[in-house]
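REVIEWER CHECKLIST
Item 1: Sequence provided? yes
Item 2: Single chain? yes
Item 3: Sequence as submitted:
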Amino acid sequence: MNINEYMKLKYLTIIIQEECTDGTLCYRAEHPQLPGCMSHGLTPDEAIRNLIDAKHLYIETLLDKGLDVPMPPQST
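Item 4: Structure as written out by the authors:
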């Protein structure tokens, strides 16, 4: 598979509300099937948009290193 095919896969997305370093609320979005693939944003939507970029970089790095890309669970 190439990176565009991996980007189309539906990975579980978790959004967690957190406190930023300045004390304001922010959000972390992550794909649990891609360990360490996460992003932050001031809103849930911003965190998800940033996660798309993080997912692309994460998968691209794995592919460049010749490593396996974890697959999302199969839908039933």
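Item 5: Key structural point noted by reviewer: The beta strands are 14-19, 25-30, 38-41.
Item 6: Recommendation: ____
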